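Posting for a labmate who doesn't have an account.
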Amino acid sequence: MLEDLGGFLLEHVLSFLSPLDYSQLCLTSHVLYLQTSDFLLHQANTIGRDLQIKLFFEENQSLLLPKERQLYEHFLSVITQNPDVTYQKLPVYHAILDLITDSEDVRRVSIITSHMFSYLGDTDHVFVKNNEELGRDVVFLKEISWLMFCTNLPKFCAEVYPASYQIRLHLQIRDDVVWKGDKPMVVRLLKCKSHELVRHNFIHPSVWRDVSQGKHVDLSYNNYNDKNLKIVATDTPSWFFLVIDNVSVVEGDELYFTIDDRQNVFWKSGKSWDFLEIIRLK
């Protein structure tokens, strides 16, 4: 009896059937209906995971982090050398899944494409420079008195449709960072069409020196900021994510992100910016 086959043998048999065969098989018995349904659900989840990985690396190929690039290149090398291998069982496949396990989709945009970036291109202040650790160009801050830039978030379709999102700015805080003064940097997230304010947070200048020295940082800023704003270290030394968590978009719209540090007129230095990403959460 087909019902009595072990899990592996049954999966092997089911893998040869057509959609019509599945529907007819489900009508033969309650046990086979459950077994076939479980098999099809497993297959759908596998296809979904494969597509998620494919989209992540295709959409963000030029902006991968070193660990992501290393894992993906290792994965491609293994399946190229072993074309008959069941790649979903490879440890490197699951390591890649662990990187994107909480996300439905991830899109990144280079900060180089930002508009209204103060003095961008001026070699005395802020300019595009190759970063050896990342293997690509980033925006490098040499020295500036006031700073502002705006970046449109990448879209999954015509607009950012209703869902829960996480926004992350990938930035470098170098050992020589200087960020004096007592006026806070303003971090805003807005809707492009309506200019509705989605998030509005402040970061005190002392935070950047504390982060570069590995100290615990307090982003509360007089209890104005919520707990959804945080700075997270990455696997690459001196590189961090400025994270805005739990961004709920109720109505579809394009979003844009701004950094505004024009209130603080002291000279600033010691940062670089790589990309901004939007993560659609599961």
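Reply:
Got it, the structure tokens are right above this. The chain is about 30% helix and 35% strand.
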